[in-house]
């Protein structure tokens, strides 16, 4: 049974309410507000029926302490001295309802049942939020290779910093997962994250999707619509594939980044917003700037903190853990019970180049789980384009292939750039490893038009 605590300085009211409720609830009562607070500390109380004036004690102060101890405890305030001011104050502090004495028992039970429904709903929402946060936590992301742990380390550093983040990476590398991890691990995790794929929405519709519009702003605007930016107020706006946005709309996004103001279509007065902006792209935005396809001022406003995602071939150690994760996922989704992978299938999966990165690996595993009749995923369950890699040697991240016909200059360039990348751009360490002077290394990098 649900526990109810009655706090009232009149013993007759405590007794009468206890008698009326004892068949439906486990009832505790006290005339001492301090004792009531101790009961809330030590018991899991679902509802408190609280007198607003308990002798010389202000019930609002008691209410405040109860909500501080357990915000899930629902409080219904009772008083013989009702006023608009006290009602508003009680509601602000956290009371779910306000009843005037003498108490109508039938009415009280209705509000108590509503309070229990609210408590259950609130608990479900908290559990759902915790599940979402756990799913998108850093610990929940698959990948323990050096290349990817560097990314996760950067996520940990920037998650609570209220500044723009630009995520660079090829298609299918998981840019959206990193954006969600930043949001759900950060200070704005209890607010909304709104995701806009700039490549998936036609340019003429993207502005209204982002900024919203007023009723009558254009033909067909029969009612007001809030845009994604306003919906993300106090939370996070994730602009995926921002490199696809046209120049005119880029100028309006720049204003949002700089001034945190928006003007919906058809509106005359700008609105203030408070959003954290995370952008992602599979394009080289600096090249897009040079070619006049992306605004330079917006690029530098977005490029405050950058996270560069490695492609799957740069984190081959993660292929098998990811494959097992997707196997579990599609076993559940397709009601299968595939136990794992054969040794031969594992070897081929490790050798394949994955031009579609993690997304392609997931598709390969989903297909194999759906079609196989074997107890484990075998070679025959993998697509033809993957099987072509059976005889290819597995190269670790500190190796690279030299093809017949490559010139010595091409081989030298590849060796220099890969060594520099291995040492995270540290030219001193790279030069030492290559056995050349820093001056010679800088000369060669200049010849390659290399930029940090």
Helix and strand composition category: alpha/beta
State the helical fraction.
Answer: 40-55%
- Mean model confidence by pLDDT: 89
Text of the CATH class of the largest domain: Alpha Beta
CATH superfamily of the largest domain: P-loop containing nucleotide triphosphate hydrolases
- Sequence stretches where pLDDT stays below 50 over 5 or more residues: none
Strand runs, count: 16
Tell me the distance between the termini: 66 Å
Cross-sheet strand order for the largest sheet: 2-1-3-6-7
What share of the residues does DSSP label as strand, in percent? 5-15%
Q: What is the CATH topology descriptor of the largest domain? A: Rossmann fold
Cα radius of gyration in angstroms: 31 Å
How many individual domains? Answer: 4
The CATH architecture of the largest domain can be given as 3-Layer(aba) Sandwich
| Net shape | elongated
Q: Main sheet, how many strands, which sense, barrel?
A: 5 strands, parallel
- Tally of helical runs: 19
